[in-house]
From TrEMBL:
GO terms for biological process: protein lipoylation. Residues 24-212 form the BPL/LPL catalytic domain. Pathway: Protein modification; protein lipoylation via exogenous pathway; protein N(6)-(lipoyl)lysine from lipoate: step 1/2; Protein modification; protein lipoylation via exogenous pathway; protein N(6)-(lipoyl)lysine from lipoate: step 2/2. GO terms for molecular function: ATP binding; lipoate-protein ligase activity; lipoyltransferase activity. It holds the Pfam family Lip_prot_lig_C. GO terms for cellular component: cytoplasm. Residues 210-237 form a coiled coil. Its EC number is 6.3.1.20. Keywords: ATP-binding, Coiled coil, Ligase, Nucleotide-binding, Nucleotidyltransferase, Transferase. It is an enzyme of class 6 (ligase). This is lipoate--protein ligase.
């Protein structure tokens, strides 16, 4: 497997490169990058629910949406991101534990830390999360990517992220800071982040470096610009909703339902959350708009959704109906 080591700390570019790779390069690749301070949200999340937008603007922390599901993460230059981009492996989506094994083995056998897979999609050391994992499929290819929290400054994370506290309480901890840890703190022999990245690449990649051409870099820059423009537009064009329902569901994640009614019909509708989906759940909102708001109509709509699990992994239809009905 060849590797790519990003030469920039721009998170818009680095995440755009993932999209370019999975859609355009017909080979397996291991991609590594480090971002300057930013919050990266999952593809289904409402940024207003996940982070303090004013604090981000005041402290020059960028907001970026990735193509995979899952939750919001804060990153600075002490975090290392990795991506396995795998050809013809779309069928393996949600095999989090299986695909995390090379990273777990690297941490255990090369750095001698007690790493293990835990929870829904985490790698942990002594119960503390040091890696969050997500997946995305496109063109029958799979991206399996995650963070490696090497030496991140979490001193202000409570001002940056605004998590769902039902989820935190359900995990038996009182704050984000108590739930996450730094790999650096667990190392018996200290190394730099650059040394860590070198060891990681040497352990995973067995072929030479893949280098983008100038033309490829221009294409990635276009995707990066679009990503930045979309998140800016989302923050500026904000709907106000009469009805909201939010709930954390163990094994699924957090889900938020927002809608407005006019003459007992749904006039606006959105679904957000920290959950995994193969398809984009934003595509479903139009099937609710203009429909009568009652139990039978909503149930009929939900039960007609094809490939339901590809929109809401590990959620049943009746639960979605009850959420929309504010139960």
């Amino acid at each position: 497997m060849k590797y790519i080591l990003s030469k920039t700390n721009n998170p818009y570019f680095n995440l755009a490169a993932e999209e370019y790779i999975i859609n355009n390069l017909n080979e397996d690749l291991f991609y590594v990058y480090v971002n300057k301070p930013c919050v990266i949200i999952g593809k289904n999340q409402d940024p207003m629910n996940e982070t303090n937008i004013k604090y981000l603007k005041d402290h020059n922390i960028l907001l970026v949406r990735r193509v995979s599901g899952g939750g919001a993460v804060y990153q600075d230059l002490g975090n290392v991101n990795y991506s396995f981009v795998l050809k013809d492996k779309a069928k393996d989506i949600y095999k989090f534990e299986e695909y995390s094994k090379p990273i777990v083995d690297f941490l255990k056998n090369k750095l001698y830390v007690n790493a293990e897979f835990g929870g829904r999609n985490d790698i942990q050391i002594e119960g503390k999360k040091i890696s969050g994992i997500a997946q995305f499929v496109s063109n029958n290819n799979l991206i399996f990517h995650g963070t490696l929290i090497f030496n991140v400054d979490f001193s202000n994370v409570s001002k940056i992220l605004t998590p769902n506290y039902d989820k935190i309480i359900s995990k038996g901890v009182k704050s984000i800071q108590k739930r996450v840890g730094n790999i650096y703190s667990e190392l018996k022999e200290k190394i730099t982040k650059e040394q860590f990245i070198g060891l990681l690449i040497d352990n995973i990649a067995n072929e030479k470096e893949y280098k983008f051409s100038e033309e490829q870099l221009k294409e990635i820059a276009k995707i990066a610009k679009e990503k930045e423009e979309k998140i800016t537009f989302l923050l500026e064009k904000r709907n106000q909703y009469q009805f909201k329902k939010s709930e954390y569901i163990s094994g699924f994640g957090t889900i938020q339902i927002y809608f407005n009614l006019k003459n007992q019909e749904i006039s606006q509708f959105e679904i957000f959350g920290e959950y995994f989906s193969k398809y984009n759940t934003d595509d479903l909102k139009d099937i609710f708009i203009g429909k009568k708001y009652d139990q039978n109509t909503i149930k009929d709509i939900v039960y007609k959704i094809k490939d339901f699990e590809n929109y809401f992994y590990n959620l049943n239809r009746d639960k979605l109906v009850s959420l929309i009905m504010l139960k």
